[in-house]
Write a structure and sequence with these properties.
The protein has 5 helices and 2 strands, in the order ββααααα. β1 and β2 form a beta hairpin. α1 runs antiparallel to α2, α1 packs across α5 and α2 packs parallel to α4.
């Protein structure tokens, strides 16, 4: 599996993006459990967990819609662009609602959402250090 090949778990999604989603999900779980085990207040633990879920769902939606936008032709490209921008506005509205209606720590929420960046960095490091996959095509034969 290389960074350009599709991942069986996410149809049409590059393996790198699917891997980064898995790493981000694992980081969110670890961060929430660690916050709890280290005695953080419940709003902090909830903030990390909810922020992480928002981050993972947003990352998945951006990857899925972005892939559709890149592959789209003609007028459908404009439709996907509008859907992508609408999704961004909806995410901002959901974040506002979550932070105003639920007893969440804004710092915990930011930590959870921010786990996107270390997930991508870890996936970059892993894909850089991973051994090259030999070509199975007949072009070298």
């Amino acid at each position: 599996m290389t960074a350009a090949t599709p991942d069986a778990g996410a149809p049409g999604m590059p393996a790198f993006i699917a891997g980064a989603l898995r790493v981000e999900t694992a980081l969110v779980l670890v961060a929430a459990v660690l916050c709890h085990l280290l005695g953080a207040e419940p709003p902090m633990v909830a903030g990390v967990a909810v922020g992480g879920v928002v981050g993972v769902v947003n990352f998945f939606a951006m990857a899925w819609l972005g892939g559709r936008l890149i592959r789209a032709r003609g007028q459908s490209r404009g439709v996907y662009a509008v859907i992508f921008l609408t999704k961004m506005m909806l995410v901002l509205g959901v974040i506002w609602l979550l932070l105003t209606l639920l007893p969440l720590s804004p710092l915990g929420f930011l930590l959870g959402v921010g786990l996107f960046f270390p997930a991508v960095m870890l996936m970059l490091l892993w894909s850089t250090l991973a051994p090259a996959v030999p070509s199975t095509s007949r072009e070298h034969a």
